[in-house]
Specification:
- The complex is a heterodimer of chains A (320) and B (241).
- Chain A is mainly α and 320 residues long.
- Chain A has helices at 7-36, 46-56, 67-82, 103-123, 127-158, 163-172, 174-178, 180-196, 224-250, 261-288, 297-318.
- Chain A has a domain at 7-140 and 202-290.
- Chain B is globular and about 55 Å long.
- Chain B has seven helices and no strands.
- Chain B has one domain.
- The chains are: A mainly alpha (320), B mainly alpha (241).
- The A-B interface holds A 92-94, 156-160, 162, 164-165, 168-169, 171-176, 178-181, 183-184, 298-299, 301-303, 305-307, 309-310, 313-320 and B 1-2, 4-16, 19-20, 22-23, 26, 29-30, 33, 37, 119-121, 124-125, 128, 131-132, 135-136, 139, 149-152, 154-155.
């Protein structure tokens, strides 16, 4: 057939889609959020302009910082570019490299990226970046159990922990969608994503100096191309997490079932459409809730933990 | 469907009906957990009304799917009583006593007095452990129901146990009363699972027991407020020998 793409090209397209579209998804979300607040808001393409500007600028490193400080942005970006190989971004059938790692593997790589950024932040000696790094790791430790229980739910539902398998299970019948364990796990994962992407019940993401900052405080000392890489990395992280929630848990439809070029193109459009839709939902949440005080974040994590644990209970005991 | 789905060790999905009814039952449990978070009595009353509404919805679902027309009457009565009458009575009651010392003068609504012995996150973790006990205990009994999935019965005991935790963790009479009433919601959920086919007259009689409880609690709240000038039960600890 003429329109069939070679599998390695699709594999590459998965990474390229996430890498290139991630700032755009952030841009649309920022625009929608501004509109909901009655502001005109930045251009949708603003994140790209920001990145281009930062790439042209001079890079400075704090005195006394070592090579770790400079390597971390590259390590983080490399991690974020690896994860799209493992998750169903465009195709509903597993691509060859998709079996390199399961959900735990993907989670591990995401955690490695966050670890690299945190180490670089504590390298700087700046109290603010260090505060962010320490908070990110502290709250990371209490959201980790939630992710683990979500993975237990996936494992109990599918018998494996491959993201492709769960997406196929969800597509298979309506009873898989309304089963309580699935709904609870998806809700718990959504709450974790709100935390991981630094959204409103947990922190404000607008990037101004603020006392309650967690993730946003970490790259404070980076500048120029290094800062651009970190910003790009955090928007990629957001799109990756959205993709996991959408294409594995909530709406794994619109994925390409074949290697045909039109189907793959449609899958790209569908993914971006769904991601923007999720971004709008997140923006609405941003505008309708107040930020939690720092010490109330444990309550947010406890609520997510409750959902994930109840998911495992209903599966394990009630056949839910 | 790809060969990936339906791997060997998977837990089979329940039918859409039993999945959906379990979700509603879980909503009842989540409302119970949500009560931990409420800081105003008004919000807690609202949450109680929502929780009672969910039980009526579940009763209507069972009635429609399992062809038990009695349950429609029960659902309507239960909704009228627990979603409308009891919350109104509670609100009026709280407005009456809310003019005491420690309440917010602007609204007349009293804040909930927590026990202060455990933070919210720890309380939720404790309640999760208690709910887990409920799940495992009912599971061990092996009760099968003709109308609802076994998960609903397990959830109903968890609701009752979590309501106990709520009552223990609160220090004011009014929110203890709401805890007790939501405990009754757990029991009606259990009744729906075990005895959906019970004669209507018995079910209605149980429902009116609730009214007695409301009257008793009203008396308790009024007497306590009259004596202590507050809703908090902290003063009562001095009665210990």
């Amino acid at each position: 057939m003429s329109g069939t793409l070679p599998i390695p090209v699709i594999q590459f397209l998965q990474v390229a889609t996430v890498g290139l579209a991630a700032p755009g998804v952030s841009g649309v979300t920022a625009r929608v959020e501004a509109r909901l607040q009655g502001r005109a808001g930045p251009r949708v393409l603003q994140p790209y302009y920001d990145l281009a500007k930062l790439l042209r600028k001079e890079a400075l490193a704090p005195e006394g910082s070592s090579w770790v400080f400079l390597v971390a942005p590259f390590a983080a970006a490399a991690c974020y570019l690896t994860v799209p190989l493992l998750i169903p971004v465009l195709t509903s059938f597993g691509l060859p490299l998709g079996y390199m790692g399961d959900i735990l593997g993907g989670g591990l790589i995401l955690a490695l990226a966050s670890f690299a950024v945190s180490v670089a932040a504590s390298e700087t000696g700046s109290p603010y970046a260090q505060l962010g790094a320490s908070r990110a790791k502290t709250f990371g430790a209490i959201t980790e159990p939630v992710v683990l229980f979500v993975i237990f739910v996936v494992a109990l539902v599918t018998g494996t922990d491959l993201p492709y398998a769960l997406a196929a299970t969800v597509r298979s019948s309506a009873s898989q969608i309304v089963r309580p364990a699935h709904l609870l796990a998806a809700a718990a994962l959504f709450m974790v994503i709100l935390y991981e992407t630094g959204r409103i019940p947990v922190e404000t993401h607008t990037g101004t100096n603020e006392f309650g900052m967690i993730e946003e405080a970490r790259p404070f000392e980076h500048s120029g191309p290094y800062f651009a890489l970190l910003k790009w990395g955090s928007s990629m992280k957001q799109l990756i997490l959205y993709t996991i929630l959408i294409n594995v848990f909530v709406a794994p439809w619109g994925l390409s079932a074949t290697a045909q070029a039109p189907a793959v193109a449609l899958a790209i459009v569908a993914l971006l459409g769904k991601a923007v839709l999720l971004g709008v939902v997140v923006a609405v949440i941003d505008n309708s809730f107040a930020k939690l005080r720092l010490f109330k974040i444990t309550e947010f994590a406890a609520a997510a933990f409750l959902l994930a644990v109840l998911g495992v209970f209903t599966l394990y005991l009630g056949g839910g | 469907m790809s060969a990936l789905a339906g791997a060997a060790a998977a837990v089979a999905a329940p039918s859409v009906y039993s999945g959906g009814s379990s979700v509603i039952a879980l909503g009842v449990l989540l409302a119970e957990f949500g009560m931990f978070r409420q800081a105003l009595l008004r919000d807690q009353v609202r949450l109680y009304a929502a929780q009672s509404g969910l039980i009526s919805v579940l009763a209507i679902l069972v009635a429609a799917v399992r062809h038990l027309p009695d349950l429609y009457v029960l659902a309507a009565l239960s909704a009228a009583l627990k979603v409308v009458v009891v919350p109104i009575v509670l609100r009026r009651l709280l407005r009456g006593v809310g003019r005491g010392g420690e309440d917010d003068p602007a609204t007349g609504w009293t804040e909930i007095a927590g026990s202060g012995s455990l933070g919210l996150a720890n309380t939720v973790l404790l309640a999760i452990a208690v709910a887990a006990f409920g799940f495992f205990a009912v599971r061990a009994l092996g009760i099968r129901s003709a109308v609802l999935p076994p998960a609903a019965l397990e959830i109903s005991l968890s609701v009752a146990l979590v309501a106990f935790v709520l009552m223990i963790m609160r220090r004011d009479v009014a929110s203890q009363a709401i805890g007790f009433l939501s405990l009754e919601n757990g029991i009606s959920l259990a009744a729906l699972v075990v005895a959906a086919g019970l004669p209507l007259i018995l079910e209605v009689a149980f429902l009116f027991d609730l009214l007695v409880a409301v009257v008793v609690f009203e008396l308790l709240i009024r007497v306590h407020h009259g004596r202590a000038e507050s809703l908090s039960t902290a003063d009562l600890t001095s009665l210990r020998g």
